[in-house]
Amino acid sequence: MIGFRFSEYKPEGSGKANFEQLLDIFLQLLNITSGDVSQSLGLLSDLDKRYEMTDDEYGVGDFINDLKNKGYIKEDENNPDQFKMTAKSEQSIRKKSLEEIFSKLKKAGKGNHNTPYSGVGEEKTSDRRDFMFGDTLDQIDMTSSIKNAQINHGIGDFKLTEGDLEIEENEHKTNTATVLMIDISHSMILYGEDRITPAKKVAMALAELITSRFKNDTLDIIVFGNDAWPIEIKDLPYLEVGPYHTNTYAGLELAMDILRKRKTSNKQIFMITDGKPTCIKEGIKYYKNSFGLDRKIINKTMNQSAQCKRLGITITTFMIARDPYLQQFVRDFTKTNNGRAYYSSLTNLGEYMFEDFVRNRRKRIK
Known about the structure:
10 helices; 3 domains; Rossmann fold; alpha/beta; extended; single chain; 6-stranded mixed beta sheet; 3-stranded antiparallel beta sheet
């Protein structure tokens, strides 16, 4: 017969989901619903009815029992009829985000960032040299130094002098202090586009990356709306957008306060935003302007950007809006700080952030 015959597509196998497959969907729903277990289970049931993901042998009820037995959810003490997430679920969401966004990540040993510099570090090398002023005690190879003293002065008149000391070179490893700023203003859910869920997913992936593979680094997370405040990594799945304006100035001010306390010289700010600054605080009152680029607000924000540059703090802005005038603001903002900017869609936000993070861990940030 000439031509093609079309029929309904039927995947191989039963096509029924097992626990791991349902768990993957459930964790995605938890991220979308900001950690609302009841709402997520309701959405999962609706999906099951629509797409017949389960059968009589293993249904959504069995899946809920497994979630409880395996420690992913537990009863809410304040409301026994409701469930809430456990720490295991929070960590699983972070791991899933890391696997999804950073799937191309290569294994990186203990998670330190190699540089071409030698000096104080954790990785010992075979290089040796004479002691120089400024070297620390932990760099001295005592065995070789004592041996040198015996050779130079003899066993009968043993003494250890500066000329006997031998330094063991270590491979320099960088550690980096990162502050991640997440915009939670109302514009992050305007026009029917959910921008906060991808932002949370990227933040959780970055947190899991740093805590599991770059253990010497620090990561602080700040959210900013009318004000700015720090949150814990465990709070990320529950993060929601509020009825806020965008006070970028307050976010940068708090980020600088945090980074001033970090001992490393490598300090940077990652900022995820979709719009322009629209708010600053003057005393106990807020000055707000949602329309256009208010010069008073912009100038204060630019001054903060310049201050970060003077402190050696690089700002990388991940812009998830395509409006030309907003992108022009980001270009001016980036030029003031001598930082970096990515004009990202919601689908490649994680790729951009990962590439920038890894690339700039391989060198000293200036």
